[in-house]
Amino acid sequence: MSSTTITRGNSHETFYIGVNITPASVTNGTTSNQTFSCPGLLTTDILVSQGYIANQTSGIFIVETDCLTAGVLTLQFGNFGAAPATPAAGIYEIQVTRAENYPLPTNAA
Which helix (H) or strand (E) element contains residue 16? Predict the structure, then answer.
């Protein structure tokens, strides 16, 4: 155990960005991967969507957040409503964590 109170780990930095997007409609009962330009994102970034800043469309949820191509944010929207719906357009808050080294460890030991 560390002798200091400073938290240690393999995260180089964690920060938040607000990405202004306009998603497309999602068929009810399905998911839809949608991509948006986001300069500076890296494929090794660990992304977590904190959600839409205002009210989200009823039945729409963000299922997954990735950067599969550098500079491109991929959001997977799920529509769990009874009809096709379009996710709200506007600013989505994304948490970005950059690890110190890749590949990441395969266990927590």
Answer: strand 11-21
Q: How far apart are CA 50 and CA 36, in angstroms?
A: 16
Region label for 51, one of left (φ > 0), alpha (ψ between -120 and 50) or beta (otherwise): left
pLDDT tens, position by position, for the chain (109 residues)? 445 566 667 888 999 999 999 999 999 999 999 999 999 999 999 999 988 878 899 999 999 999 999 999 999 999 999 999 999 999 999 999 998 888 888 887 7
Tokens of 28: 């009810």
| Gap between the Cα atoms of 31 and 52, Å rounded | 17
Helices of type H across 9-94: none
The residue length of the chain stands at 109
Q: Which residues pair with 20 in a beta bridge?
A: 91
d(CA 104, CA 44): 10
- Beta-carbon contacts of 22 under 8 Å, excluding residues fewer than 6 positions away, are 89
